[in-house]
Amino acid sequence: MAYQAKVENGQTVVLENQGRQTVIRVSSHGQRQSSSATTGEWKAPPTLFQTGDGAVVEIHTGDGPVYFQIRNGQLHPLDRAPMLEEAQYLELEEVADGTGQSEIKPMKPMKPLKPM
């Protein structure tokens, strides 16, 4: 299972656990960047926070929580828990494994025109 959310600057973040790897994809304005890190298997769904200078991902593993900062589309591992008192919690939506849902929704079929 993967999880996605939109962060303040219009970027979409997709988080996915692939075995011992955590894959984080950031897409913005049609461009997509992907990073991965060895974190171990998740013990709970990840948590995402909006901060003043980006976003923070909290991943719960068997060894305890692991933190990453997403800033300017780049993933930065954090070696300790960041201060999140003033951060905004972002709701993550479950999506199918892979790249997450497209930012563009398919159009609904058009209704037939009435004769004149």
Q: How would you characterize the overall build of this protein?
A:
With 116 residues, the protein is mainly beta. The protein has no helices and ten strands. A hairpin with a 2-residue loop joins strand 5 (47-51) and strand 6. The radius of gyration is 17 Å and the shape is elongated.
Task: Compose a concise summary of this entry.
The chain is mainly β and 116 residues long. It has no helices and 10 strands.
Secondary structure elements and their pairing?
Layout: E1 2-6, E2 12-18, E3 21-28, E4 31-38, E5 47-51, E6 54-61, E7 64-71, E8 74-78, E9 88-90, E10 93-95
Antiparallel strand pairs: 1-2, 1-10, 2-3, 3-4, 5-6, 5-9, 6-7, 7-8
Percent helix = under 10%
User: If strands are numbered along the chain, what order do they take across the biggest sheet?
Assistant: 4-3-2-1-10
Radius of gyration: 17 Å
Largest sheet: 5 strands, antiparallel
For this entry, give a set of tags.
5-stranded antiparallel β-sheet; mainly beta; 116 residues
